[in-house]
Design brief:
Layout lengths: L15 H26 L15 H35 L6 H26 L12 H30 L3
Organism: Pontibacter qinzhouensis
Protein name: DUF2243 domain-containing protein
Pfam family, one: DUF2243
Length: 168
């Protein structure tokens, strides 16, 4: 995407559609990074390992099934974000900005991590960030802190670019 020159409100273009599309893609990509890196490559946890420890083949299969459901959600969310991005670029009704897009991606990824971290790690206790650890709480809270920092960084990037573009 090419950077646009600062625009005024009178242009009729807004930043919201690009941020929304990027945030959806960021949510999906955050889920993919979690699922691929933490679940599959590092094998720190699976979707239900705090409830169903992966100690038998059957338990592994149950966890793998729910990991698949989780990956289906992330795929659908990413596809929805790509569709929204395509529509806004095709209709030319939104300001395009690399900084807005990057901020939206980071906002979405941080949002995914915050929601997933609070629900899965603290409320439902489906799994811990690092299941086989002497201090699972440190990993879970560290994950949340990093997630809130990502969310805030995305938000501030978006606000700074909106200010630069003079579109609020």
């Amino acid at each position: 995407m090419q950077e646009q020159q600062p625009a005024t409100r009178a242009s009729g273009l807004t930043t919201g559609p690009l941020v929304a599309a990027a945030a959806l893609i960021g949510i999906g990509m955050g889920g993919f990074i979690d699922g691929i890196v933490l679940h599959q490559i590092l094998q720190w946890h699976q979707m239900l390992t705090a409830k169903i420890p992966a100690t038998t083949v059957l338990n592994k299969e149950v966890n793998m099934f729910w990991d698949g459901i989780f990956h289906s959600f992330t795929w659908l969310t990413t596809a929805a974000g790509i569709y929204r991005l395509w529509r806004l670029v095709f209709t030319r009704k939104a300001l395009l900005s690399n900084k807005l897009f990057a901020g939206g991606l980071l906002l979405g990824w941080g949002l995914f991590n915050v929601v997933e971290g609070i629900l899965d790690h603290h409320v439902l206790v489906l799994h811990n960030v690092r299941e086989l650890s002497a201090n699972t709480d440190a990993w879970n809270y560290g994950f949340l802190i990093l997630s809130f920092l990502m969310l805030a960084a995305g938000w501030f990037m978006i606000q700074a670019e909106r200010k630069r573009l003079k579109v609020y």
